[in-house]
Amino acid sequence: MSKQRRPHGDGGLVQIYGPKDANGNKKLKSPYYYAQFYDTNGKQIRVNTERKVKAEALVELRRLMADRDSGAPDPNQARSIKYADLRAGLLASYVERGNRSLTTRADGEETVVGLSQLDDFFGYDGAVNKGPSVGDITVDTARDFVKKRRVEGAGNAVINRSLACLRRMLKIAHEDRKIQNVPTIRLQKEPPARRGFVDDAKFGELIRSCRLLCARSSCFCIIAAFVLVKRSPSSGVRSILLLDSSVFTRRRMMNPAWSRCPPFCA
Asked: Does the pTM of the predicted model rise above 0.90?
């Protein structure tokens, strides 16, 4: 009685054998079953299911074929993607979108905040070591990175910049249909925004310093930080909010939208 053939397109499970031994018996090269099926273009795909039990390997085969039907990339191709490829995709996205946070180092290499810490963690050197495979980057990988950075004394805000880079590069690879699944990268809780207070004596010194600075810069007030003032009616203490490097003219400082502006150029 001839062996019944399975319907075409259902896929199958195979085991890889090595050469026969001296007694003429075949010996398995691997104890695992391999899933074998065709992609939408008719190309044969063979994937190690990493299952030794045939029933479990069959479940993995059905999952792989379901991913194929949903348009997932070749799993063998996805396994060949390294951290270096994810990193390159992230930088390319910054260039395409024109993000100003993309900076160039003295050696001409492009980078963003938080990326160098990921490079050190994954051992990426740009030449020989391209980092781990994307399949090896999991939720536990992100947790290990957080532990390492905390031992080094980094705060949660700094750690989150690196985690945001990792999460974005994985998302870009998924959007480019290079990987099917994206591991969850959870950001750490950051401390609340810092608020500073100064007494009248220190505030007077700040005002006098700003007046001298404005006198040297003609009609423009170019300062490292612009101070918005709010007096507490109960304590009389002024709270300050610092804004990064800004240029304000006299007219803008007189804008009533500000609660109160110190007379820097008075």
From this structure: no
